Structure formats: C-alpha cells, structure tokens
Hints:
The chain is about 40% helix and about 15% strand. It is of the alpha/beta class. The protein is built from 14 helices and 13 strands. The strands form four sheets. A seven-stranded mixed β-sheet has the order 1-9-8-5-4-2-3, with helices on both faces. It binds pyridoxal-5'-phosphate (PLP). Pyridoxal-5'-phosphate (PLP) binds near residues 58, 154, 156 and 157.
Amino acid sequence: MNTFLPFSKPTIDEATIASVADTLRSGWITSGPKVLEFEKQLSAYFGGRPVRTFNSGTCTMEIALRIAGIGAGDEVITTPISWVATANVIIEVGATPVFADIDPVTRNIDLDKLEAAITPRTKAVIPVYLAGKPVDMDRLYAIADKYNLRVIEDAAQAIGSSWKEKPIGSFGDFVSFSFQANKNITTSEGGCLVLNDEIEATFAEKYRLQGVTRSGWDGIEVDVLGGKFNMTDIAAAIGLGQFAKLDAITAQRRKLAKHYFKTLGKDFEMQTGAQLPPAEFESTNWHLFQVVLPERIARPDFMAKMKEQHNIGIGFHYAPIHLFKLYRERGFKEGMFPVAERVGKQIVSLPMFYAMDEADVERTCKAMREVLTE
Length: 374
Ligand SMILES: *Cc1c(COP(=O)(O)O)cnc(C)c1O
C-alpha cells in the first residue's frame, strides 16, 4: 500500500532547525530578541500595525476581548462552525456567546444572520475565516460601524489570505492569528494579535505577563490581572523560519487547490452529490481543502475507508460548537442553526500541506471518487 498521506503536516527546514539550536545554546530561551524580531517582521507585513506574539491563538482573542472591555452582560456574536476556542474565549471573559448560522457556500458566518442577531447588548463580533477564506470584509466593517461593535477577527487560519489585495491583518480592528502546528505557518504552538495603536499594544503586553508594567517607582508595578501568555524565543525562532516562507507556502497551497479542482473535474459535484469549496484562488490561502459529503455518506465511514483502503488521513473542521455539552447546558440545541448542523456533520478536510505534491492530490481524488461512488 502507498505511504500514509496525512491531511496536514508541518515542514520545518534545516535553517530553522539550526536557528532553534542556536537559540537553545544562547542561554536565552524565553521571550527575548527572537520574539522582538518576529514581532517586527510581522508588523511590517501587516502594514506597520502593532503586533504582539503569544503562546496560542486562543489567548489572543481572549486578550482582545479584555482590551475592548467586554465582559459580564455583553453579547458577542460568532459562528457555530469553528474550533471551540472561538466561543470559549467569550465565556472565559464572562460575556455571552451568541451564534449566527453559516452561509452554505462559503461555510463562514452569514453576515445577514449576524446582523439579525444584534441586540442592544451586542458589543463585539468574532468572524472566522474558515479554511482561510475571508468573509465580505466591506460588509463586515459596515455592520460593525453601523452598530458600533468591536471586531475580533479570528484569522487563525488566514495568514497569507487577502481582501481586495490587502493582506488580512493589514486593516480592520483586532486581528488574531494562530501558529499552532497545523496552521500554514507554525511556531509549534503560538499566535499573534494585530492591534490598533500602542495603547492597546501596551495592554496586550500587560495581559500577556501577569499585568506587570515597568513604570512603577521601583521599576515594576501590577495594575490589571494578567496571565502567562508570552511566546518563547524557541518558538519565535521557528516562526521566523516559517514566516520567511509564507509566500512560497501560500503559492504552493493555491497550486494544490487548483489541482484538486482540475483533477476532480467539473462534473464531480453532479456525479457524487458532494460539494466543493468556492473556486477562489487569489484571496484565500487554502489553509484547508474542504468538501461537504452528500447525506447518503456517513462521515465516519468515509474517513475509515479513506484510511483503511487508501492510507489517506482525512480531518474534519468542525463539529458545530453549539451542540457540545458545555453549550447545550447554556440553552443551545439542535435545530437552532440548521446550515451549520448539516455542514458540521458532513464536512471533511482533504490532505493539504506545503510538502504535498500534485501526485498526492491525484491519489486523494481517485480514492475519494471510489469511496463516494462504490
Ligand atoms: C487554530 C484555531 C484557533 C486556536 O488557535 P490555537 O493557537 O490552537 O489556540 C482558533 N480558531 C480557529 C478557527 C483555529 O483554526
């Protein structure tokens, strides 16, 4: 049988490994010069906006909510189809998560439904760019302006994506990225937050490290309750090596996505009943290549057959958040977001990573067609 083809795999080059080794030998392994350099390069990429790094993408969203002053009594609207972190951070700061159903084509939050879910208590929205595909950013910010809402963009999957040729993160309100192992660029675990000004950036630094400021009479003062969210120089060394390849990584993923469409052919949807993602190549970084299976196919069976008969790993992103026990206990139930429930049950992620080649795409397409039509 063919070698195992996972749905995702990080590629760390030898120069990056050498840089990590240098850091380990340097005697400075926590936050230091590598973190500062990584933040500097990220800021330049995001058009000079302030950027701070952290030890996860999740905490960047929690910190953005805290900087925005969002807490008890406030509602924050997000999508049910995301990693559970997106909604958990809303609960973490004491606010109330509100969901709006998704658009069946983009699989992102439906902005009409988002607008309809706004109440006088709504203080912020957290749109998610699933698979790296942005929402309609003009419409998003028009809604935010109209209702005076803060936006925390969950761009965890969207580094390298763009809107009207502007990189995601180079405009807007708070923009959060993840560098978790499976993301397009990684620090093993980590994240960064793009902020609006130096005042917010100072708050981000405080929340990142126990609320410590350096301005007290004895050189140290604590005036807000912070946590322990700083990135290490070991992680930043990985991040710098990865970031240098961002354009190549994005280009390779776009090439692979194009090859998926070409190999599956334009009759694939009609022949199998499966639904492909929008064929959009310039704005999305193709973090994932996701297919929604037809109702007659049970996802666990599909995944098992791809693994057992073809040695191909298939992922799924994501189960609807509102149906997890924690959320059911808060009053959410089946039937509330029918599009998210249908897509969340049938969506799968095909192999998509930098080190893959076109033969891997062809192998996956052939296997998928076989499993779907047998
Ligand atoms: C990865 C991811 C997160 C969380 O990022 P971590 O770095 O794992 O904390 C949040 N939202 C989405 C959409 C993600 O893909």
